Task: structure prediction
Amino acid sequence: MLKRILLQTCYFLSPLFLIITIYISNPNYYSENMITMILGALAFTWLNFQLVLSARPKSVEALFGLDKLFRFHGIMAFIAIILAFSHKILKEFKFAESLKTQFGNIAII
Result:
């Protein structure tokens, strides 16, 4: 039971390291763009974790069961995609079209 709670906590708190690292890299820029940066970091981290979950790690599968693991995998992938689109929409609303946003559009497509 404790292992399950620990794994779930690590999963949901894992983007914090990325968020803190990005913010420290340029605090002046990200102080006014905090929400878009957080949405992007959450989407990026959780989409990458979907690759790990789809590999069906034996230790995680034994703790949660294959049924619950696949259900969680599907729900979190959907949430990560929603976060990525939210990041894209807010970023385009705040900034004009640029080469950077064009590459972002290609990545989402």
Observations:
- The chain has seven helices and no strands.
- The mean pLDDT is 87.
